[in-house]
Amino acid sequence: MPELPEVEALVQDLRSRLVDRAITRIDLAAFSALKTFDPPLHSLHGTLVEDVTRHGKFLDINASGIHLVMHLARAGWVRWRDEVPALPAKPNSKNPLAARIVIDDPDTDTQAGLDVTEAGTKKSLAIYVVRDPQDVEGIARLGPDPLADEFTIEALAEILASEGRKQIKGVLRHQGTIAGIGNAYSDEILHAARMSPYKPANGLDDAELETLYAAIRGTLGDAVERSRGLAASQLKGEKKTNLAVHGRTGEKCPVCGDVVREVSFADSSLQYCPTCQTDGKPLADRRMSRLLK
Where in the numbering of this chain does the FPG-type domain appear (predicted)? Predict the structure, then answer.
């Protein structure tokens, strides 16, 4: 799933490709992906891209004051194409293409474009056409951006205090609490902070608060810097290469050499290092416990 660093890198890449270029048309190949009807999708045809920005994990293309907002969800992605087919994309349940944004290029005889795709059978990718990004409910409910100047250690302290005894892993992932952090980077942040994912949010002392704050800013900031200048096609590989524990169950922790362990849930899992994060104690995996009964 694309998280804050990948979406930020996509913004930088697409901004350099799209700003001051016209949108010729948008082909919708997955009708269920479009979540709005006013303004209509065709209102973007002939508009000029003014900027590309980000709201948490939402991608925002501002074209002549109309915003094309996308949430790539678990399996969505965007792919730049130097040349797209002349004929409009057609709906096809076997094709991962959800939408195609065709860009006018007056300097060539071909048309470039952006393919928005979603792999797998569980379709969660969402596309919105709005006059104001705040009209998208998910954006209106976002918490503070963890890389913004306003996200101070005092702001983090207030957030954690207000969340009570909720597990820190869930607090970091909740978009209405802190925007942009998902399953992967919450694992990475907690590993960098040497903190159990089950630790209560309001259970941190001053030193732990400082450590967690530094881990949030450092982990996300470093990922953004590593991704800077990379094309969209390179971002997934860059992310996977630099993860310390997430997605590395059974491998050695790069810090201490212990085996990375996993806790499974209904639709996700978390990874952690027992030595670095839980004083060497494995966390209870209720799903596995039920299977072993």
Answer: 244-278
- Burial class from Cβ neighbours inside 10 Å (0-12, 13-18, 19+) for residue 210 reads middle
- Do residues 197 and 169 touch, judged by C-beta distance below 8 A? yes
Question: In the chain, which residue ranges form alpha helices assigned H by DSSP?
Answer: 4-18, 137-140, 153-162, 168-173, 183-192, 206-227, 232-241, 274-277, 286-292
Q: Please tell me the CATH superfamily of domain 4-140, with its number.
A: MutM-like, N-terminal (3.20.190.10)
Q: What is the pLDDT of residues 181-240, one digit of tens each?
A: 999 999 999 999 999 999 999 999 999 999 999 999 999 999 999 988 887 778 888 888
Query: What is the C-alpha to C-alpha distance for residues 129 and 232, in angstroms, rounded to an integer?
Result: 22
Q: Is the peptide bond before 91 cis (omega within 30 degrees of 0)?
A: no
Task: Please check the confidence at residue 61 and state whether its pLDDT lies above 50.
Answer: yes
Contact 66, 3 (CB under 8 A): no
Measured in whole angstroms, the distance separating CA 35 from the mean position of its chain's CA atoms is 19
User: Of 282, 242, 239, 240, which is closest to residue 258 (Cα–Cα)?
Assistant: 282
CATH architecture of 153-292: Orthogonal Bundle (1.10)
As beta bridge partners, residue 252 has 259
